[in-house]
Design brief:
The chain has 146 residues and is α/β, with parallel strands linked by helices. Helix content is 31%, strand content 21%.
């Protein structure tokens, strides 16, 4: 599994907590990095999702939430398998207005957005295989324009 701290990707080779992006490789050791999982803030939430060229899945979480800590690494691993999607996180404690507006009632919650609109959501933890299946189903719904 990826070494993932909500919004931060660690290098799998050297463990560098801020490896930078050097053409997809760690600037410290040159190891190929997993896809970036972006942390969203109130300032860029609408812009990132509304102007995204590809569907984006957002993991709504909180630092005190045990299931969120379980889901974080699984979410980061899914990004390695579904490189056609954007992956982002939103800390509901820091971004309360977004959580309220997006009606996030349970944690963790994953929301699949395409074209700036919500396509689907799911709450709770799941294994990687179940998450990948869910992502595929949401992609099919988004393609149909439902």
């Amino acid at each position: 599994m990826s070494d993932f701290i909500h919004g931060l990707v660690r290098c799998p080779q050297c463990g560098c907590a801020d490896p930078g992006r050097n053409g997809g490789t760690c600037a410290n050791c040159g190891e190929l990095l997993p896809p970036a999982v972006q942390a969203l803030s109130a300032e860029d939430f609408d812009l990132r999702l509304g102007e995204a060229e590809r569907p984006t899945v957002v993991h709504f979480w909180a630092p005190w939430c045990g299931p969120c800590s379980v889901m974080g690494p699984i979410f980061a691993d899914a990004a390695s398998y579904r490189r056609d999607l954007g992956f982002a996180t939103c800390n509901v404690d820091e971004e309360e207005a977004i959580a309220a507006r997006e009606d996030i009632a349970n944690l963790p919650t994953l929301v699949y957005y395409a074209g700036g609109r919500e396509v689907g959501r799911i709450s709770g933890t799941m294994r990687l295989e179940a998450l990948l299946d869910w992502l595929d189903r949401q992609a099919a719904v988004a393609r149909r324009g439902v």
